[in-house]
């Protein structure tokens, strides 16, 4: 017996259908097909709004969930990093409780898979419950060359603790020394790699001129990198050669990535056979820098886009729908079907999960969401709500 669902609209992961098409699911919740109303026969359940595959959150820091409501808004990225460093230590029970609640929120918000940044093992117990699909990105940082070996060994040890899929990744250009890059780069071979990119103007200032708040920040902490020489280029153009062996690069935030860098990145990705994705976390960008990326320009340039929530340290909610609503506030002309594809199929592809998530195609089990309060004729998401059906 098939479960048969139809709605005012059916978003397949690729296109928005509006002619009464029916989603067929088998008893195990696997997609059998999307068919016409005539082919579906009897027993079709009609619901209000849009039927949509489950959402994919391509960038999150679940382990920072205990920092919700502790870091003030609008500190700028350097100030935010200082706050996280100062406040992230907490009682283990408090950290675990916050992780459980954060995952519960993601489930309620229709999220089915998460690209999660891991600096600790704190999220492992909850991930073992297998309520969501996770890609575990084991993050490395270390600006002091003499610390590179220790940081690398810590990352390899942590990697062994996590279940697949997983990979070792750099935190950001401004926080990884050349020595550490050389140690972690072999792990990128044919892997999915993610990195925070150009989240503040100070990142490019560091690499182009050896100036800006990061230099002051490191001096205040007594952190010295004698190997560092400004390249005269943007941060991403400076470090991209280390990433050339990756199968996929998910560049996160891109708040201050200019068109010339996107053009350079597209050429670099094509030359090195790297699949490039941009992960947008616009509510976090607003929270930290009071800024949003040039999303319309990215779309026009053909940058494949995905959606992330970042952490509860830099966001009030872990909601993909809320991220889409914020994007639409600033970029009202982007079609709803495009936004939904970023939140579903694009995210599944970026995390290497498109074989079973992201779209209503035979054999997949992407989850089924009901979206209500969306005005398709006016292209408005602002009153939208999400309910998880499967």
Automatic annotation (TrEMBL):
Q: Which Pfam families match?
A: Amidohydro_1
Q: Which UniProt keywords apply?
A: Hydrolase
- Superkingdom in the source lineage: Bacteria
- Which ranges carry the Amidohydrolase-related domain? 50-365
UniProt keyword Ligase present? no
Q: What GO molecular function annotation could you give as one example from this UniProt entry?
A: hydrolase activity
Name the PANTHER family for this protein: AMIDOHYDROLASE-RELATED DOMAIN-CONTAINING PROTEIN (PTHR43794:SF11), AMINOHYDROLASE SSNA-RELATED (PTHR43794)
- Its name, as the record gives it, is Cytosine/adenosine deaminase-related metal-dependent hydrolase
- Species for this entry: Hydrotalea sandarakina
